[in-house]
Write a structure and sequence with these properties.
Blueprint: H1 3-12, E1 15-20, H2 26-39, E2 44-48, H3 53-57, H4 66-75, E3 77-80, H5 94-101, E4 106-112, E5 126-132, E6 142-144, E7 150-152, H6 158-174, E8 179-184, H7 192-204, E9 211-216, H8 217-226, E10 233-236, H9 238-252, E11 259-263, E12 268-272, H10 289-301, H11 305-320, E13 323-325, E14 336-338, H12 340-349, E15 384-394, H13 399-409, E16 416-423, E17 426-429, E18 441-448, H14 456-468, E19 472-482, E20 485-486
Parallel strand pairs: 1-2, 1-3, 3-12, 5-10, 8-9, 8-10, 13-14
Antiparallel strand pairs: 4-5, 4-11, 6-7, 11-12, 15-18, 15-19, 16-17, 16-18, 19-20
Helix pairs in contact: 2-10, 2-12, 6-7, 8-9, 10-11, 11-12
This protein binds 1,4-dihydronicotinamide adenine dinucleotide (NAI) and magnesium ion.
Amino acid sequence: VDSYFLKRIFIMTKTPITIARGDGIGPEIMDATLKILEAAGAQLAIEEIEIGKAVYESGVKNGIADSAWDSLNRTKIFLKAPITTPQGGGFKSLNVTIRKQCSLYANIRPCVAYAPYVKTNFPKMDLVIIRENEEDLYGGIEYRQSQDVMASLKIITRPGSERICRYAFEYARANGRKKVTCMSKDNIMKLSDGLFHKVFDEIAAEYPDIEKDHMIIDIGTAKVAAHPEMFDVIVTTNLYGDIISDVAAEVTGSVGLGGSSNIGLDFAMFEAVHGSAPDIAGKGIANPSGLILGAIQMLVHIGQGGVAEKVHNAWLKTIEDGIHTGDIYRAETSKKKVGTAEFSKAVVERLGQKPSTFKPVDYSKAPAGGIKLPPLKPVKPEEKLRVGVDVGLNWDGKPDELAGLMQDCLLPEHNLKLQMISNRGTKVWPGGKPGTFCADNWRLRFMAADGKTVKTSQVLALMNNMNEAGFNFTKSAMLHTFNGVPGFTVAQGE
Ligand code: NAI
Ligand code: MG
């Protein structure tokens, strides 16, 4: 069997996908999008599921019925129109549910200006944000530690960071992009953001053909807002990515033109950036471009790059020809104001044409079947030694007094010494500053008295004494070194 024959079979085979028409303008823009995909010759076996408002209202708290999962688990490819999330009433975000249950670790959002046809302050802007989608503060691990103190846990892992950073470089290669910029706040969060930055550098070294740099997220966001032309691909953690991708989309001049993909190890979901726009639903005037651009990313992902290219070029030509929906229509730059269906028809008429002002897209280098990441890099296990413990306490009083009370709880057989006390991360003992404000939750750091290691039983014996002395624990964390490097930070001012 020659490869030509195999290729023919591959092309002829329809890829099963799941779609949902969603709420508000969802059905209108999905209809417009599917018409274009069909006319362009996309080979799709479409299964439809219902999600969103009607499902929520039928009593399903997360907006997606179990039966809908059958289709998703089968196709693993989801083209999703926006849905209306009901307010209050214990309803859970469908997007977060799908993202988590399908392990969609990467959120990809291209932010492109279409000047001079769509008004923008940054005509050359053309960047892609690749946001880690599962970790960070979105684990939602939160605690109320005392009357006054709430805490959220930020989780950054090596595998999670490696996956998203590698995805960014593979994406850059596959899409002919030149530079990947990592954004983090590792000057403050030395361990969590520090790991992300470190893994970025390690992965970057494997891609000498791609330029790399790193920016602190605050100045990076400012630069995206004021000089977006300087960026190509941006990779960042979940929360920063959430914020900066909205900044970038807004700066392009048109949230209605954004498409995005959510990529997992097995699943992938494609959608528009905008919501269900209930204010214009049913009027036939919505811009279907966001979902069309999401569908183009889907076609590239499932190995139908040729069809994706055809649709994308026809879409660019339509924008260039000044055929615009109301949201982007301007008398100076547009030629014809159209509704959703008419816009879709204009794109269909231009299938096979290329834009003349915009650079035509080229998906010939995009890998069939989406970007497949190699297995995670093996890591050398490091020697982990227990060297101390941080104990959290609710307490009212002065730090010197608290330190004094601890001396009564500490016995020589615990092999622990009180090294410092901090409040809200700032050292208040020994040698605290009288001006430091203290909340009602304290952290006491005990380290091995012999400067070596401490046993769990010794930690528990100390805590037992503290308990008997009437102290009120909130949280404790064991302190370890890894190959001699502390796996914990020092307090501010320590
Ligand atoms: P939205 O994006 O739906 O609308 C914001 C504004 O942009 C509105 O004035 C709307 O008319 C306009 N707009 C949005 N898409 C447009 C399009 N394609 N063509 C022309 N104009 C467009 O955001 P909003 O109003 O905050 O949310 C409405 C609903 O959508 C809410 O229930 C929200 O929870 C949901 N939502 C769903 C998302 C999803 O399913 N992925 C994402 C964001 C919001
Ligand atoms: Mg957001």
